[in-house]
Amino acid sequence: MTTLLSFGSNGSGQLGLSHQEDVSSPSLVFTHHPSSTLPSSVAQIAAGGNHTLLLLTNNQVLYSGDSHNNNKITPTFTPPPLPTPPPTPIRSISATWSASHIATPSQIWVHGHGTKGELALGSGITSATSFQPIPNFPPSNTTIVSISASMSHAVAVLNNGQVYGWGAGRKGQLGPEPSPAVSSPRLVSCPFPVVKALCGKEFTLLLGPPQTGEFLVLGSDKFAIKSNAPSDLKGWKDAGASWGSVILLKEDGSLISWGRDDHQQLAPSDIGPVEKIAVGSEHALALTRDGKVLAWGWGEHGNCGSLEESNKERANVIQIPDEYNLEDHEVTALGAGCATSWIAFEKRR
């Protein structure tokens, strides 16, 4: 069984702790399952401004925080109101500030609010109080591989290497034709097949296969997110985007980062080989190969641990509760959102 701990901003119950107070120490989330454990491993965590989605490996989605339905707050993780029968198999989830996306190979379901086309349901549609399918997507003879989102735009990667995007596009983050609101999926031109896409607040990063190192940054060059990018990204293993920066994990455990750093959002240089990363709006988490969970960046809400323990020149070592010590437990997933942090554990066999 999987145990999930969370810490950080919690004004809408988005941490799933059954209350709405910020916390700076990893705390056990509450779910509708016995003992608040999860029935399977955490596959993905997606966080919006005030809500959180969990995708489990058993194809279940759980939700906490602002329900975007008559200001209802859900402070524990429960299943969202999905259609019947629920979509399956779920491949990916994502969240803008106030909308949620659930992707299967053949459909994307959306819920929430967005005035810049974040729902992709067509011109003038800014709200969906229940999950609705994006019409006429994906194109014939293609399937959806993954979906990514940031503050107000989203992109989906297809099995043929094409990318489609929607939402805010005024800065060119959805291609060379700027638009304040793209209300249905639009093809984003890229000269190479894309295998992974990341969304920042005003930019999109498209990645080719790790062996090629090809990449393309679209959108604003704020914080030199385009002009300071490395020449190639060969050997990447995973990558994440904050609102204004990119952190990339390479196969050798090293980290590459560039972009905004006014709150130490970029990766520290002295934390050793890293196994996993998670990148939030202005902070990041890492699991090192020697078993430490580290956090750095903007941590005012406790999402980087206790501020008294933080050293702004280095990453903060997150203090794990004794009952989840890393001798007996394995960290199986990390998550980072809008000043929210997540650590999933499973007991070692």
Portion in strands: 35-45%
Quaternary state of this entry equals single chain
Poorly predicted parts: none
Give the mean pLDDT: 95
Helix/strand/pairing class, anyone? Answer: mainly beta
Percent helix, as a range, is: under 10%
Q: Care to count the β-strands? A: 26
Tell me the major beta sheet: 4 strands, antiparallel
* Broad shape: globular
Strands in their spatial order, largest beta sheet: 2-1-26-25
Ends: how far apart? 11 Å
Order of helices and strands: EEEEEEEEEEEEEEEEEEEEEEEEEE
C-alpha Rg (nearest Å): 19 Å
The number of helices is 0
Tell me what the structure shows:
0% of the residues lie in helices and 45% in strands. Strand 7 (92-95) and strand 8 (99-104) form a beta hairpin. The chain contains no helices and 26 strands. The radius of gyration is 19 Å and the shape is globular. It has strands at 2-8, 23-28, 42-47, 51-56, 61-66, 73-78, 92-95, 99-104, 107-113, 127-133, 144-149, 153-158, 163-169, 179-188, 196-199, 203-207, 215-219, 236-241, 245-250, 255-259, 274-279, 283-288, 293-297, 316-317, 329-336, 340-347. It is mainly beta and 349 residues long. It starts with a strand and ends with a strand.
